[in-house]
Amino acid sequence: MKKIHKELPILFETAHAELASALEMLAACKETDSPKQAFGYFMHAKDEYNHSSSFFKMLSKRGKKASVRIARDFRFTPPSLIRKGYISNKGFLIDTMKLKDFIAFVYTNELLAKSSFENILILVGHDTKEGKIISSIMVDELRHHGMAKKFFLKHYPSLQPWQLMIYRAKETINNKGRKLYDANLKLLDRLLTPLYVALAYIVGTMAKKLNLNEFKRKGKNLMNVSSNSIL
Ligand SMILES: [Fe+2]
Ligand SMILES: [Fe+2]
Which domains can be identified in the chain, with CATH numbers? Predict the structure, then answer.
């Protein structure tokens, strides 16, 4: 059970990241005027949808084994893609970034995705059925990385490797920031929930003690009611 508790958040976040990539690719597909590029983006989106579906299946398998109290924290809702920062509330990357930055983003993220899958692979085991699925996802990610690299070198040949390293460092920091933000939200939730419950209890106790007959106005001369009264 301890292993499941460790796997749940990792699979949950990965499924989010993959689904967000699929949506980003689909947005890019809609935006481009080049049929060749549109096809490339579309196929990439299809791969990312399949990846997210695989991770959601792995998540659901573990969710069924966990207690309801734990499992409900890992229920997917589409707005969490924005709340968790996988999709910006300012719009899709293709709309908010220059094409050059967008391709660099894809280029670096595909490599980062592959290395984060290596850790998941260790968690689920290389030789398991799930391990084989993850290995084939890693092959896809490397292919995406290769495609973005090819596109990049063709359109921006003057870009130096150190510039791509800066892009990569920036993305690594962003990914860490996203995890920190999510952890902070969870901590706030843990701190504030008892406070909300205590407040609800106090208000409930006060409401129970109120004599509601005082609120009846029938037969009352309203002119005699004090101006300070809440009636
Ligand atoms: Fe992927
Ligand atoms: Fe990918």
Answer: 2-78+95-159 (1.20.1260.10)
